[in-house]
Amino acid sequence: MQSALALLLVVATVGVRAVPFSLVDTPAKCTNPTKRVSWHDVSAEDKKAYISAEQCIMNAEAKLKKMPGAKTQWDELVGLHQILSLQIHSTGTFLPYHRYMLHAHEHLLNQCGYNKGLPYWDETRDAGNFSISPVFDSVLGFGGTGQGTSKCVEDGPFRNFTVNIGPGFTSQPRCVNRQITNALSSYCSASAVQKAISPTTYEEAWRAIYSGPHLMGHIALSMMNADSITSNGDPLFFMHHGFVDKMWADWQAKDPKRLTEISGLNAQDPKVGFLEFPGGIEEESKMWGHPTTEMKAVTPDPTTGDKGGNQTTLGHVMTSLGIIPDTTLENIMDTKGGYLCYEYV
Ligand SMILES: [Cu+2]
Description:
Di-copper centre-containing protein, binds copper (II) ion, single chain, di-copper center containing domain from catechol oxidase, mainly alpha, two-stranded parallel ribbon, copper, metal ion binding, globular, two-stranded antiparallel sheet
């Protein structure tokens, strides 16, 4: 009986292995996770390497020719966020998709020679007084608050840099801009984070993270005029979203069952749109317009992998339009699951 069971297991295992994967992402084992370290604790040498890799992405010519208006690889990353913005905000895919996008960003950094773990910004350490944070250093950071009416960042490594995507669903060359409001940054405190990751269901947790420290951080930083569609034009966006991703990872770490727990819509309900704005998509489009025909032509079907339904499932297929291969949501649930292999320290 036991040997029959063993045989059955062998057959089952071989059977699973024999299934051809249509997606290029057969998870390997994660034995030595890379460390994602807060910018405070990154060495000067690694900060320089990260910044110069970021500049390399910004200077690299666009190669996918899919994101309308993109001239550089940075523009392609911003264009990706623009094209998917009505699917990945205020939905169940918000946390997983931004985790996947950090991974796509990491791939571009790797190609530009940066091979350490992705840094992030532990905002709890600067909450209430963001402007003193080392992330705003003009040499070993992202430059400070913007100047003049344009709020262009005029110091630091990105001061002369042009983003060609945005605002909203347009493609107009503009500076990296931001505006720090210290008072609002207190909503990114350790206690605010604890509150955001205290819910017991994924549905409540993503909403608490989204509307809590995630949203408040965006408002406190006002990156790219706080444009919900293209705020990732500011490289600081990825520091903030590492912080957001850590919140999800910390929530998941409280119970192993949470590594398979997913729910929520896979695209915005047009009547609701962004949770933080009233009126739904039509009303909100007065701020940033509509996706253009060219954008619509490359916008993925948000139900792909979700059996055609509007609810996010583990089978949900995430695409970066070619920056990295498509993958399933299941593969990115665990930051140490093999497809991904990192941890926040
Ligand atoms: Cu986003």
